[in-house]
Design brief:
By secondary structure, this protein is of the alpha/beta class. Helices cover 32% and strands 18% of the residues. Bound molecules: threonylcarbamoyladenylate (TXA) and magnesium ion (MG).
Length: 324
């Protein structure tokens, strides 16, 4: 059964917090993407997340908390580096991986002895966390491996009535998932690029920051195919994109195009969506645009390759994972 998103009011936030206490699932907006939340201290409730998403049980979840003051509920020793990053970037789109306290359920951490923690900046998320009081374990509120939701309607489209409530906070302002930094051992390492860049992290920690190697810690966001549309998607540099469009159209193929250059957006093709040419605005529009094209049941989606620099790191990471 399709779910209707709930308008945010102080009452609906309190109801959502009550549902979390009762072990139910609540989808809620964050500034990155919508999350599918459960009481992180309740393994049975957390189990419902995996069932609703069709997600393998060994994939860890991020625990959302209302403030950095709650870090000590989840980790025995809060490293200075975590406090520095929290001060600089929380509330905001940064997840910090730390060694977990013994009481943190393994259901949340996918059996690992580390836990991912984040204070989100979206006011609805913060109000929910404050009303709830504890940690809310929440992955992105999509079926496993699919495009993350940036609107409440996207959540309603994908998840059924295993979710007790979807709080409708409108469009997510950041639009791609948080940057994940692992501080669980001596070497800070980025496990997933996001809006907060490696340079920004480096400027605060004043130390070099590694980039994830697939072997270090298992993070599903690091798997080759993730964030994928159903339609086959291809990434092409602007130079070859125009001839690809011609070729595929000549073969009678139904194609969709995601472009940011005006020269491509103005080509005579029915399904071209022009995204902004600034990385931050592109990020905010990307998942909705992908979903829109995916829903047209086309033969393929061509995506113009963005520049290869730090500002575009999160976009490039997601596009590589969404394409063949
Ligand atoms: O922006 C976000 O991070 C969103 C919103 C809802 O907060 N959440 C999100 O969750 O993207 P999810 O589950 O789709 O991705 C979480 C990522 C996964 O790649 C997971 O493996 C990684 O975080 N992660 C969580 N805990 C971890 C841990 N202890 N060690 C390594 N990776 C971890
Ligand atoms: Mg996800």
């Amino acid at each position: 059964m399709a779910l209707t998103p709930t308008t945010v009011t102080p009452q609906s936030i309190q109801q959502a917090a009550d549902l979390l206490h009762q072990g139910e699932l609540v989808a809620f907006p964050t500034e990155t993407v919508y999350g599918l939340g459960a009481d992180a201290s309740n393994p049975e409730a957390v189990g419902k997340i995996f069932a609703a998403k069709g997600r393998p049980a060994d994939h860890p979840l991020i625990v959302h908390i209302a403030s950095a003051a709650q870090l000590s509920d989840w980790t025995e020793e809060v490293p200075e580096s975590a406090l520095q990053l929290a001060k600089a970037f929380w509330p905001g789109p940064l997840t910090i991986i730390l060694n977990k306290k013994a009481c943190v359920p393994l259901a949340v951490t996918g059996g690992q002895n580390t836990v991912g923690l984040r204070v989100p900046a979206n006011p609805v998320a913060l109000q929910l966390l404050q009303a709830f009081g504890g940690g809310v374990a929440a992955p992105s509120a999509n079926r496993f491996g699919r495009i993350s939701p940036t609107l409440a309607e996207h959540v309603a489209e994908e998840l059924n009535d295993s979710v007790a409530c979807i709080l409708d906070g409108g469009a997510c302002s950041v639009g791609v998932e948080s940057t994940i930094i692992d501080l669980s051992d001596g070497q800070p390492t980025i496990l997933r690029p996001g809006r907060i860049t490696r340079s920004q992290l480096k400027a605060v920690l004043k130390t070099d920051i590694g980039l994830s190697s697939q072997t270090k810690i298992r993070a599903p966001g690091m798997m080759a195919v993730h964030y994928a549309p159903n339609t086959m998607a291809l990434l092409c540099p602007a130079e070859t994109l125009i001839s690809m469009i011609d070729e595929l159209c000549a073969e009678g193929k139904q194609i969709g195009v995601l472009a940011f250059s005006t020269e491509i957006a103005n080509l005579p093709c029915l399904n071209i969506l022009q995204l902004p040419d600034q990385a931050e605005h592109y990020e905010a529009a990307l998942y909705s645009a992908m979903r829109e094209l995916d829903n047209l049941a086309l033969d393929s989606i061509l995506i113009e390759q963005p520049p290869n620099n730090e500002a575009w790191a999160a976009v490039n990471d997601r596009l590589e994972k969404a394409t063949v």
